[in-house]
Amino acid sequence: MPVVSIPIDAEAKERERRVKNVLMHIFLNVTTLCLPIQAVTSLMSELTKGDIALAAQYLGAGASATAAFEFCFNPTMGCYTDANGRKAAVFVGPIVCVIAGPILLLKPNSLPMLQLVHAVSNGANAISGTSVAVPCIADICLGDQDLMAQGMASVAGWAGLGVIAGMPLSLSSPSLFALLN
Per residue in 129-138, pLDDT tens? Predict the structure, then answer.
């Protein structure tokens, strides 16, 4: 059976396409992280009966819980993806967010539930975001140092675009929670 070789140009174009897909994933991941910011802040303020200082304490505790989640799970997922591939880990954040959102809707007036869902969702999003995306770019570009440099240099820009896209969308999200209560 003859071996069919792909021309170098086709291989390079395919690697570029895959890097662009990973960068788009980073953009969508960061946009998803920004979407609930206003809603969580608004709901936290509501659950603390307008006590801004207490709401800030809970938001800080939630940020700490997210950091602890990432500290525990990111290295484990890194080892897992090194051994088993990265494709499944890319879906961790979206799957957790799809499950966690409706769970929060079941008990929207629960402060512990809000903190748990927010911490786990953000932590899972981080796993499927840059924790997996940056090694994906390195894997795709294996041997192509110019493409890897371009891909790595573009990560922050695409993440920044995610913030720019996500924040205006998050401004309308408190009204969604108001409809549910």
Answer: 878 888 999 9
